[in-house]
Design a protein that fits this description.
Blueprint (H helix, E strand, L loop, with lengths): L7 H13 L7 H17 L19 H13 L2 H11 L28 H12 L2 H14 L2
């Protein structure tokens, strides 16, 4: 997962811009655009996970933030490309962190600052990220590639 700042130059540029910004710089139209973008994100986002990882580690090895990242990505971008990326990155790990590994212990939910119903959202994420053809494909490739 990429962050918004992945180099020292980007961090320095963001610091420079923030230090030059003044209150009231945005026009009413600018603020309307920002609000519209926020509305679109809220409409498409399936889980309000910030990736803080307070829910981790999962005793069963579920990569909770990873599953939620790809679940959200499916609805922010193209479903097929997000599923493919999920299969490549989550499915080809030596120890995968699939949502289906969740046993519903609830340990994660006790630590979530967003108060996400993680157990329920993991079920939804697994259903959407790994429909039957993807489950079969990932399992087949894992048997061949990972030993």
């Amino acid at each position: 997962m990429l962050s918004g700042m992945n180099s020292e130059n980007m961090v320095n540029e963001n610091i420079r811009i923030a230090s030059e910004a003044e209150p009231g710089h945005f026009t009413k139209e600018d603020m309307e655009i920002v609000e519209r973008i926020k509305q679109i994100i809220r409409e498409r986002e399936k889980v309000g996970c910030t990736g803080c990882r307070y829910c981790m580690p999962c005793p069963k090895g579920v990569d909770i933030p990873g599953n939620f990242y790809y679940y959200n990505l499916m609805y922010m971008e193209k479903k097929s490309s997000a599923r493919f990326e999920f299969a490549q990155n989550m499915g080809m790990r030596k120890e995968p962190g699939f949502a289906s590994q969740c046993v519903g212990c609830g340990q994660c939910e006790k630590h979530c600052p967003q108060h996400i119903n993680i157990r329920e959202k993991l079920k939804e994420a697994d259903h959407d990220l790994r429909p039957l053809p993807y489950k079969i494909g990932i399992d087949a490739v894992r048997k061949i590639m990972i030993r």
